[in-house]
């Protein structure tokens, strides 16, 4: 019973620090704020802050981890695709809806060149989610012959480009429409990669001996 009370107290303190960080990022930007700003806003002591986090970057990463857990929870609700043509990245629509409901925060991040560290950590988090989706789903369909991490980098870089475009236009379309645009761009890139694979296979096929063909299946 005492342990549960302690856990709740610890979580409450962490949530207060997370909330203070978000508020200050909207007001000042991440780079401009200090640990003192955070503890003043959260109304906790300096020793309390350092009992939970090493510095403001660790607090930022903790906040992004909370977002990752939320995204994973939402992605898990999606049914598995039965056909390759049904595949869609689960993280994209959920992330767009999250941005839509936290406009002030994401506009503050996107509008400041100094917020590169925030974007870097967010990109890494999304890349891990994308790579996990690729490993679980695309492998079932014998998809394009490129490393998963390269495909994930392409998927997330494209997503962030679409996200920036969407925000610069004051989110003039819905999250669902933006998600459809994102997947059109992604799948056009995948189709181009497949076409290139076919052309390369045709180019090298005549050079293979019969034994080589047995060893190297071509699609």
Automatic annotation (TrEMBL):
<feature type="DNA-binding region" description="H-T-H motif">
    <location>
        <begin position="34"/>
        <end position="53"/>
    </location>
</feature>
<protein>
    <submittedName>
        <fullName>TetR/AcrR family transcriptional regulator</fullName>
    </submittedName>
</protein>
<dbReference type="Pfam" id="PF00440">
    <property type="entry name" value="TetR_N"/>
</dbReference>
<dbReference type="InterPro" id="IPR001647">
    <property type="entry name" value="HTH_TetR"/>
</dbReference>
<dbReference type="Pfam" id="PF14278">
    <property type="entry name" value="TetR_C_8"/>
</dbReference>
<dbReference type="InterPro" id="IPR050624">
    <property type="entry name" value="HTH-type_Tx_Regulator"/>
</dbReference>
<dbReference type="InterPro" id="IPR039532">
    <property type="entry name" value="TetR_C_Firmicutes"/>
</dbReference>
<keyword id="KW-0238">DNA-binding</keyword>
<dbReference type="InterPro" id="IPR009057">
    <property type="entry name" value="Homeodomain-like_sf"/>
</dbReference>
<feature type="domain" description="HTH tetR-type">
    <location>
        <begin position="11"/>
        <end position="71"/>
    </location>
</feature>
């Amino acid at each position: 019973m005492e342990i549960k009370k302690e856990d709740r107290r610890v979580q409450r303190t962490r949530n207060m620090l997370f909330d203070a960080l978000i508020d200050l990022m909207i007001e000042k930007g991440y780079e401009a704020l200090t640990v003192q700003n955070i503890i003043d806003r959260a109304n906790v002591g300096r020793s309390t802050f350092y009992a939970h986090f090493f510095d403001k970057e660790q607090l930022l990463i903790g906040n992004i981890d909370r977002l990752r857990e939320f995204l994973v929870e939402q992605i898990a609700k999606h049914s598995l695709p039965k056909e390759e043509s049904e595949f869609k990245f689960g993280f994209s629509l959920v992330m767009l809806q999250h941005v839509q409901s936290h406009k002030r925060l994401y506009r503050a991040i996107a509008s400041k060149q100094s917020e590169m560290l925030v974007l870097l950590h967010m990109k890494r988090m999304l890349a891990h989610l994308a790579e996990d989706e690729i490993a679980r789903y695309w492998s079932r369909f014998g998809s394009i012959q490129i490393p998963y991490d390269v495909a994930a980098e392409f998927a997330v870089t494209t997503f962030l480009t679409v996200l920036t475009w969407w925000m610069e236009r004051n989110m003039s379309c819905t999250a669902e429409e933006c998600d459809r645009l994102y997947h059109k761009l992604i799948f056009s890139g995948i189709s181009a990669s497949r076409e290139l694979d076919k052309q390369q296979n045709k180019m090298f096929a005549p050079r293979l001996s019969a034994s080589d063909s047995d060893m190297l299946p071509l699609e």
